[in-house]
Amino acid sequence: MSFGICVCISEEEEEMSTSDSSTYSKVSPAVTVVATTGIIAGAAVLIVIAILIIKCVEKTKQQSVSAEEQLPTVTATSSHGSTLSKDLTVVDMEPIYNFLEDIEKEKPMRFTPHHLVHLTNNYAEKLGSGGFGVVYRGRFPNGVKVAVKVLHGTTTSDKRAEEQFMAEIGTICTTSHANLVRLYGFCFDKITKALVYEYMEKGSLDQYLFNPNDRIEWGKLREIAIGAAKAIRYLHEEHEQRVVHYDIKPGNILLDADFTPRVSDLGLAKLCDRGDAPVTLTGARGTPGYAAPELWMPLPVTHKCDVYSFGMVLFEILGRRRNLDVRRGERREWYPRWAWQKHEEGDLESVIADSGVESKYQDKARTMCRVALLCVQHHPESRPSMNSVVRMLEEEEEIIAVPWDPFRCASSSASSQTPWSFGAVEGSSNSSRS
């Protein structure tokens, strides 16, 4: 490679420089040499930089290939029954590496069934199951734990189903709150439909309400209730579009390592316009025992159905028992009605004493009981907003008088039990946890 510089001097320039010819003759050669040397040096530096960049890129590619070759081999059939490609030996994890960078940007990723098999070690550890799917423990290549929820009844796929699924994913991805479980990504194809969430170390709230071996003090339960209420308030009143959850229950309130509550499973959520415009549903939603009456009857449905469900959760937090327990005496068999009767008699102390609430929390327990009675009013318009619920639980807002018996429409006889009143039963084979 050679470089040259052509210096042209006109006759006029020569005449102008005659008067100072001695000076010019000394400066001009020096300037020429410096300019030439600078250009050559600059070009050499650019060439060296280009060579280094090329080598770095090649080295990075080699390391990426080497890392993928070291990934464990996975079987062709997952343990939850999905048949994968027979020639599957090494999972292409390049999108995973890209996704780890997107985590900071909170961009959800679309996984393939092969990715999920690798993340869950071929679905080796089942965390639990519910009405909508089975949850498995998983892990990203960088060690971050995840929970992979494989949805039931999703072996077929069509354009409309995918559009509906993606719409729900879009809803979840627009939510961001300290008390909501974070969605990392999803999978949608003919083999598998799944959601990939952040992993919650302490499991779900129902474990600490109904398992006598995993009890926590009532003050912490109250904090959990307030945190969950704030998440629902965010969905109803603070998100850019109102989100209705439809399935608030202890099993959908997860707890991190510090027992901070995170509301999960927005799979039933739909977007509603601001205001109280009713939503049209094609079938029953929610879980018996927590679902509002209007979800099981041909009645208009608004976001107030979540308020009702949360009220039922408050009763279970207050009593640290299932709302329906057939092992109890007849009067205490259905806890919410018994609490109402004691409230009417001016004897909430009996409810608090039966719940075993520590003395330092008894005033707050009475407050929670009154808030729960407001939340489970039969008519949606009689229920408070979630903002009022939060403020009343935190004792920042005065509790209004309960207007009337919230259970007047439900018969006390077992023969006329309504699906919204009696759900999961303690001491019965029909009890369920998810």
From TrEMBL:
Q: Which residues cross the membrane?
A: 30-54
GO CC, sorted alphabetically, is: membrane
* Name of protein: Protein kinase domain-containing protein
Binding positions for ATP?
A: K149
Q: Which domain of life is it from?
A: Eukaryota
- In this chain, the stretch annotated as Disordered covers 412-434
The record's InterPro entries line, in alphabetical order, gives: Kinase-like_dom_sf (IPR011009), Prot_kinase_dom (IPR000719), Protein_kinase_ATP_BS (IPR017441), Ser-Thr/Tyr_kinase_cat_dom (IPR001245), Ser/Thr_kinase_AS (IPR008271)
Q: Where does it localize?
A: Membrane
* Residues of the Protein kinase domain: 121-400
Q: Which GO terms describe its molecular function?
A: ATP binding; protein serine/threonine kinase activity
Record's keyword terms, sorted: ATP-binding, Kinase, Membrane, Nucleotide-binding, Serine/threonine-protein kinase, Signal, Transferase, Transmembrane, Transmembrane helix
- What's a Pfam family this protein contains? PK_Tyr_Ser-Thr
Q: Does the keyword Glycosyltransferase apply?
A: no
Principal subcellular localisation of the protein: membrane
Q: Which family does it belong to?
A: Belongs to the protein kinase superfamily.
Answer yes or no on keyword RNA-binding. Answer: no
How is this protein positioned relative to the membrane? Single-pass membrane protein
